[in-house]
Amino acid sequence: MLSGLFFSCSSNSNFEENIISDMNPTPPVDSTIQATALYFPPINSNLWDTISPSTLGWNTNMEQPLYDFLETNNTEAFILLKDGKIVIEHYFGESAINSANPWYSAGKTLTALAVGIAQQEGFLSIDDASSDYLGTGWSNTDETIESQITVLNHLTMTTGLDYTVSNTNCTNPECLTFLNPSGSFWYYHNATYTLAQDIVANAIARDFESYFEEKIKNRIGMNGVWLSLGFANVYYSDARSMARFGLLNLNEGVWEQTPILADASYFNAMITTSQPMNEAYGYLWWLNGKASFRVPGATASFSGKLIPTAPDDLIAALGKDDQKLYIIPSKGIVVVRMGNSVGEELLGPSSFDTLLWEHISAFIN
User: Fold this and answer.
1) Is 75 helix (H, G, I), strand (E, B) or coil?
2) d(CA 235, CA 114)
């Protein structure tokens, strides 16, 4: 956690089935897929409706073991929403409701949504060459290779630029050299992601941060700030802001009745397998329930689901030091975990996801 960085989430300006009747005209509806109206907390307010786990029929005997597991594993903040309402909100140690934590790579999903909004507004197309917005010479490749790298490649980790360089965060041209044809290989390359923010900024002719604030942050009542850490641009916020962003995506880009991202085609593509090399990756979002997956730092694929103990339709924003945002559309659930590393020092998915979901599943089932 960034020492000394705190802000109040009460002040947004300061910081920021097709059931076919047959013999039975009124068949029972599975409660897990029955449509439920979502609750949205008000903007510029600390108010947020709650609902008790006992009202939901959840296993309250497993609530304390969940807290114990979280506390043992360096958690600072944990929130669980059901249909938008808070079921659990728990802070550990000296952390509190207004404590700021880094999203790290979980913040990639913020950028993915901003790219979709910029495309929706006609500033860019994800099928365009990156050089249309970054200019020629943004990489250490020739113009032919550079012109074949598209905005979509930045969103899907398929630029083909060399991931064996000493610093894969470096966005300087000398760090961005050719290795594979674009679209032919998947590798988790932070530098090419970071450049997606520059693509947006150049397309809209203003800084990325103010565009994000206007189009996403302020419209859904988030707090937070982007801070430069070396080559990276990292988002810091309280846990409720991450929960708000999760709720927005649970409702497919719409905040209550207000479309934040109205382009349903882009949203659906964002949370769907984006390329054949890593089934568990969309546009900077991680996807569960696929037959195989790749992880940051590896070139091999692993068989099985990303998080075998979690629902198949889970999508996730995952960051360094085990920053977690999980969304489960079939259950109307959003989960936030912010805090410090559990010791694996991984950038995205880890065994902690599997262990955490063992505890969450025991609680909600």
Assistant:
1) strand
2) 14
Taking a C-beta distance cutoff of 8 angstroms, is the pair 323, 294 a contact? no
Of 23-37, 113-127, 172-186, 309-323, the least confident? 23-37
Question: What pLDDT, on the 0 to 100 scale, is given for residue 349?
Answer: 81
Instruction: Give me the DSSP letters along 291-320.
Output: SEE--TT--S-EES-SSTTS-TT-EEEEEG
> What pTM was computed for the model?
0.90
Q: How far is CA 119 from the centre of its chain?
A: 19
Query: pLDDT (tens digit, 9 = 90+) per residue, 222-237?
Result: 999 999 999 999 999 9
**How much is the average pLDDT of 319-325?**
95
Question: What tokens were used for 223?
Answer: 């707090």
Closest CA to 223 of 89, 4, 46: 46
Q: CA distances (Å), 232 to each of 103, 105, 293, in order?
A: 12, 10, 25
In whole angstroms, what separates CA 69 from the centre of its chain? 23
Tokens of 70: 């979280």
- What the block records as the tokens of 350 is 């880890």
Short-list 174, 190, 283, 199, CA closest to 229:
190
Give alpha helix (H) positions in 99-189: 108-120, 131-134, 143-148, 151-156
Residue 91 φ then ψ, to 5°: -120, 145
Distance CA 295, CA 300 (A): 8
Tell me how far apart the alpha carbons of residues 23 and 348 are, in angstroms, rounded to a whole number.
49
- What is the bridge-based pairing of β-strands 101-102 and 232-237? antiparallel
Tokens 């910029």 belong to 118
Question: Do 193 and 169 meet the contact criterion of CB atoms below 8 Å apart?
Answer: no
- 8 Å CB contact between 339 and 283: no
SS3 content of the chain, % helix, strand, coil (to 5): 30, 20, 50
Report long-range pairs for 171-176 (Cβ below 8 Å, ≥24 apart).
171/195, 171/198, 171/231, 173/137, 173/138, 173/139, 173/140, 174/140, 175/140, 176/138, 176/139, 176/140, 176/141
